[in-house]
UniProtKB/TrEMBL annotation:
Comp. bias (Polar residues): 29-39
Pfam families in UniProt: MFS_1
The keyword Nucleus is annotated on this UniProt entry: no
PANTHER family (UniProt xref): MAJOR FACILITATOR SUPERFAMILY (MFS) PROFILE DOMAIN-CONTAINING PROTEIN, PERMEASE-RELATED
Name by which UniProt lists this protein: Transporter
Compositional bias (Basic and acidic residues): 16-28
Stretches the record annotates as Disordered: 16-40
Membrane topology, from the record: Multi-pass membrane protein
Keywords, ordered alphabetically: Membrane, Transmembrane, Transmembrane helix, Transport
Record-annotated Major facilitator superfamily (MFS) profile domain positions: 82-512
Ranges annotated as spanning the membrane: 119-141, 147-166, 178-198, 242-264, 310-332, 358-378, 385-406, 418-438, 450-471, 483-504
Length: 533
């Protein structure tokens, strides 16, 4: 980094600290001006107010610092380049990941003679390889530039996706799904990790929410693209429409993968030299922002940092919470199988193939809007746990209704099943909140954050590799034996775990707040132990 950039960093850091002190002193005087003398002046009162905010059960919004023109330009550039790449990549990733379901209901089942639970096993093989590669990939990303690693993997899965178009039996699909899982393993956790380095707590949940909502956009595009292909490319060059779906997906993936080499900025202290849009001053400002909010920059993951992470209880709690939030609403993935199973009184399908692909698009739209709403509310009110609990309470409603409908379909209105499937999309915004919460719980331990993200995603796919075959078998669709009942259990578990983690967080922060009042730097409290009240 140039000396001018270093000088700017020092000046910006000083100005930022002055702005923070000025804002906090001003707010303290306005709200508690009569009490300043009793606690020894505005400086000590500022510590008191900050300490009170730390232990509050619902923390008020943090006082914002007025951004400089350079900082505003940095955030704008990050949104244009990093977020654009991440979101398009996520759309393509989820399109590649879910098009197997769209192809299945659009002729793949009949062409490859998939009359058992092969669809579930496609997910199983993908999940196993995804799970095995995910944590090594999170380690590699601390040694290899993300601008090399992530686009390289994306190009790899683009080729694999296109090759699925030429498969002739289930075994060939199994093999390619294994490769697809290996290549896709670092995309979502890798981008989430990068967001934690470039965005502040006031910006993070919104960006994570916007990025996460692109999963729904990918799912919507999969259905819409399949409808368009069936109407335009079916039979072209002797290929069925579902085969064209994989070819087109593969071409799109290759294009965005190549763009990633210059759109990913890498890390604030190790910026990507190929990122033409990121200057040395922008990178310096990013480092100032990390310091301002008590965040650490990237560090290489070593055996010592891995062992330290293993010793933290939060390294197991956050993954367990995340897994529960994924498994609880998982039934929405089988909305199209529900539609495909419905028959008219004369035995003909209620919905055409095009309609089976198109109707779930409405659920995807609900998902996108709700993820944005949950994420924006989270940043505005600076709370994560309350909104996760709110989604769990909402999620209990459709799970309860579907538990009744699958057991008594003749006496329960079919309309309640339609409504329940659509309602399930309301509670798919938990992931950005859980990851934002993790960033706040471990602001100074970037190695632990990176590993825990890996554990969380790996845990999900490890569980999905076997559970969805047992819980959501395609041969039982849509009358699953106990799937929706287990979803109720998972949502209740989410509520209990969120409350427990919030209580533990408060206990951990009390000694830090006490040290802050004394002007001490207490670094002894970690997430290995919970201090006594």
């Amino acid at each position: 980094m140039s000396s001018s950039a270093a000088r700017y960093r020092a000046l910006s850091a000083r100005d930022a600290r002055q702005d923070l002190d000025h804002d906090s002193d001003h707010n303290d005087t306005v709200s508690l001006n009569e009490s300043s003398e009793t606690v020894g002046g505005n400086g000590q009162l500022s510590w008191l107010v900050k300490a009170t905010q730390r232990v509050a059960f619902w923390p008020p919004p943090t006082t914002s610092v007025k951004s400089s023109p350079l900082e505003q330009d940095l955030v704008r550039r990050l949104d244009i380049f990093l977020m654009t790449f991440g979101c398009i990549s996520q759309v393509i990733k989820y399109l590649d990941q879910t098009n197997i379901s769209s192809a299945y209901v659009s002729g793949m089942k009949e062409d490859l003679e998939l009359y058992g639970d092969e669809l579930n096993y496609f997910t199983t093989f993908f999940s196993i390889s995804y799970c095995l590669m995910l944590i090594p990939s999170q380690v590699i990303i601390t040694y290899v530039r993300p601008s090399y690693w992530l686009p390289g993997l994306e190009i790899g899965w683009g080729f694999v996706t296109a090759f699925i178009a030429f498969t002739q039996n289930a075994r060939q699909v199994y093999a390619l799904r294994v490769l697809l899982g290996l290549f896709e393993s670092s995309a979502w956790p890798g981008m989430m990790t990068l967001f934690m380095y470039w965005y502040t707590p006031m910006e993070l949940a919104k960006r994570m929410g916007f990025y996460h909502s692109c999963q729904a956009l990918g799912s919507m595009m999969s259905g819409a693209l399949q409808v368009a292909i069936l109407e335009t490319l079916e039979g072209t060059w002797g290929l069925r429409g579902w085969r064209w779906l994989f070819i087109i997906n593969g071409i799109m993936t290759l294009a965005i993968g190549l763009a990633g080499f210059f759109m990913i900025p890498d890390y604030p202290k190790l910026p990507n030299p190929g990122a033409f849009w990121l200057s040395a001053d922008h990178a310096a400002m990013a480092t100032v922002r990390l310091d301002r909010h008590g965040r650490s920059d990237t560090k290489r993951i070593t055996w010592d940092s891995a062992k330290r992470t293993f010793s933290m209880w939060i390294a197991y709690f956050i993954p367990a919470l995340y897994i529960a939030t994924v498994l609880a609403p998982y039934g929405y993935n089988y909305f199209n199988l529900f539609l495909k199973s419905l028959k008219n009184p004369d035995g003909t399908p209620t919905w055409t193939t095009e309609e089976v692909n198109a109707i779930p698009i409405a659920g995807g739209a609900i998902n996108i809007v709700c993820v944005w709403i949950w994420a924006i509310l989270s940043d505005v009110f600076q709370t994560r746990w309350t909104l996760v609990v709110a989604q769990a309470i909402i999620g209990l409603i459709p799970c309860t209704i579907m538990s009744v409908w699958t057991s008594h379909p003749d006496t329960t209105p079919l309309s309640s099943a339609y409504a329940s499937y659509l309602m399930t999309y309301l509670s798919l915004g938990t992931a950005p909140l859980v990851m934002s919460w993790l960033s706040e719980l471990l602001p100074q331990d970037s190695e632990a954050r990176t590993l825990i993200i890996g554990y969380s995603i790996a845990g999900v796919y490890a569980v999905l590799s076997w559970s969805q075959v047992l819980i959501w078998p395609a041969s039982q669709a849509p009358y699953y034996a106990y799937a929706w009942q287990l979803s109720i259990v998972f949502w209740l578990l989410v509520i209990v775990m969120c409350i427990a983690l919030r209580i533990a967080e408060r206990k951990l922060k009390r000694p830090r707040a006490h040290s802050a009042l004394l002007g001490e730097d207490d670094t002894s409290a970690t997430y290995r132990d919970i201090p006594e009240s």
